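Please decode residue identities from the backbone states below.
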């Protein structure tokens, strides 16, 4: 079985996910994992499907046929690439929205050698204060040779500097390890 990663985007409307699911199923594919969302009137996401090796080209051609409804970009999965070794840390970020929060947090993670397994964010109205809040849930992989306490310390320092709250959790945001 071939593993294919599909990125999809289209104008939000009823039936987009069903149309994609119909094509995948009609060509012997299995919908394994996905993250899909409506964002500012567009519907976008990423989907992992498996399909019999002999039907990859057939599925690819059928996905091209969805172009009038949504754009689907196919990325061949690489089963030989394994998940990074190390421990998983999960945390949330919450604070007043401002440009650069994602850049600052991801720069700190990269500087410490972490890779991101999951990143989900949104902005929302702040209750009773009238401002906009930024919140994010992250799961990152700490390499075996990196001191996790140093990572936590760096993120806590950054939270103080950025005036946001960072809370560490025991479980991944939305997905088991």
């Amino acid at each position: 079985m071939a593993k294919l990663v599909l990125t999809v985007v289209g104008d939000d409307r009823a039936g987009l996910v069903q149309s994609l699911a119909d094509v995948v199923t009609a060509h012997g594919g299995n919908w394994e994992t996905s993250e899909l969302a409506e964002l500012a009137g567009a519907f976008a996401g990423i989907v992992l499907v498996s399909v019999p090796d002999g039907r990859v080209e057939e599925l690819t051609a059928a996905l091209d046929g969805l172009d009038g409804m949504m754009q689907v970009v196919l990325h061949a999965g690489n089963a030989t690439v394994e998940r990074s070794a190390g421990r998983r840390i999960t945390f949330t970020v919450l604070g007043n929205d401002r440009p650069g929060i994602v850049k600052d947090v991801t720069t700190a993670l990269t500087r410490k050698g972490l890779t991101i397994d999951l990143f989900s964010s949104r902005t929302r109205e702040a209750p009773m204060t009238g401002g906009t809040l930024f919140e994010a849930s992250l799961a990152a992989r700490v390499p075996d040779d990196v001191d996790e306490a140093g990572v936590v310390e760096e993120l806590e320092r950054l939270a103080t500097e950025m005036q946001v709250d960072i809370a560490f959790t025991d479980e991944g945001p939305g997905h088991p390890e």
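Observation: The domain at 87-169 is CATH 3.30.70.260 (Alpha-Beta Plaits).
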